[in-house]
Amino acid sequence: MIPAAFEYHRPSDIAGALSVLAEHGDEARVLAGGHSLIPMMKLRMADVPHLIDLQDIADLKGITIDGDTVTLGAMTTQHELIADEALFAACPIIREAALQIADPQVRYMGTIGGNVANGDPGNDMPGLMQCLDARFTLVGADGTRSVAARDFYESAYMTERDDEEILTQITFSATGAGYAYEKQKRKIGDYATAACAALITKDGDKVATAAIAMTNLSDIPVLSEAAAAALVGTSCDADAVKAAVAAALEDIDPTEDNRGPVAFKMHVAGIIISRAITRAWSGA
Amino acid sequence: MITMTVNGEKKEVLAEPRELLIYVLREKMGMTGPHVGCETSHCGACTVEIDGKSVKSCTMFAAQAQGAEITTIEGLGSPDSLHVLQESFKEHHGLQCGYCTPGMITRAHRLLQANPNPTEEEVRFGIAGNICRCTGYQNIVKSILSAAAELNAAKEAAQ
């Protein structure tokens, strides 16, 4: 419950935050909503001599929709994602998924940037961002770069982001695709036993495009290209869904924990993936 | 030195950066209504309202609240003049041991601001960040729905 002592920084712009990061290297961490970092600090599982609070940095806030391009400032909270009607119109799966994350209080504080940068395979947004083929903007001393969500995750808590970089925004295209975020969890606020994001578009009565990504079924989020390939061109009938589920299950690697043994997780994943595909298709 | 407005009163307090808001409220400001029920940010007993948001004050450093407007259960009503929600929890037996109650009522207060006319399902989902060991939630839901009805009736009467 009692975190170790640290020095608190509250810069008013990104340059200020970067200079603290540059000065203290891996002794410094940025603080967004604080709802993963502070719990880890309270358990002394995270050692953070310098904490850089990003709340005063206006450039990290806001939801912008410009034509088909959606840009989310990293400090946008889950509550703001849910409440934003324009975002719901441009990309309704975000609200559906965000409502399955944590609880009201946590959603008032927790941010999209913190969710995707955290690197915990339990977080829901990373798989969803892979499904949307989002890009993450990273700003560091050497300038700005953009990394695809599909290339961002290396292993549990290890990402493409360097210690001295800040994830500033998330960009993806608006989508009218049929969508579903299906999540099996033990209770409110739990990370998924298995979860699946699905986006499907239709051409006539056939699947034109599909994107299927899974949460907490490996040490990183998993986008299953094989599952998508198994759906494209089919009429998404029972056989096609079965083939897609089989393909998706080949791509995951769950581990046993108190949510269940591997065999159970594979079983749950199969059901969740099937539901996500079926519901996304019904809205396509 | 941290400055914040707590229940309408401007407060200045000296706190280390690592001091959690819940401890600063309880130990340095005497606001002992908000409680601590866990160390993993689940229970919501420490819920207070900060700048129009329901926040678990165990998961925020006091330094983050610099300049913030905070409402705790102590700011919602007084023993002589209960807030509608407090009256309703009393009336409908929405509490037993009382340990979750300050967080529960503070959360319900924000919930009814955001959604003045919630369904039972919306109330249950809306208080999902608050755990209660005693009541089984049924009477808490009743208390909140009844308070909502009363607040709406008062609003209509005022128009």
Describe what this molecule looks like in 3D.
The complex is a heterodimer of chains A (284) and B (159). Chain A contains 12 helices and 14 strands. By secondary structure, chain A is α+β, with helices and mostly antiparallel strands. Chain A has 3 domains: 7-53, Uridine Diphospho-n-acetylenolpyruvylglucosamine Reductase, domain 2, CATH 3.30.43.10; 63-173, Uridine Diphospho-n-acetylenolpyruvylglucosamine Reductase, domain 3 (2-Layer Sandwich), CATH 3.30.465; 178-282, CO dehydrogenase flavoprotein, C-terminal domain (Enolase-like, domain 1, 2-Layer Sandwich), CATH 3.30.390.50. In chain A, the strands form 4 sheets. In chain A, strands 4-5-10-6-7 form a 5-stranded antiparallel sheet. In chain A, β6 (135-140) and β7 form a beta hairpin. In chain A, α11 crosses α12 (262-282). Chain B is an alpha+beta fold. Helices cover 36% and strands 13% of the residues of chain B. Chain B contains 5 helices and 5 strands. The N and C termini of chain B lie far apart (44 Å). The A-B interface holds A 1-8, 10, 31, 34-35, 38-39, 41-43, 51, 53, 55, 79, 102-106, 108-109, 188-189 and B 16-18, 20, 36, 39-42, 44, 47, 53-56, 58-61, 63-64, 66, 107, 110-111, 125-129.
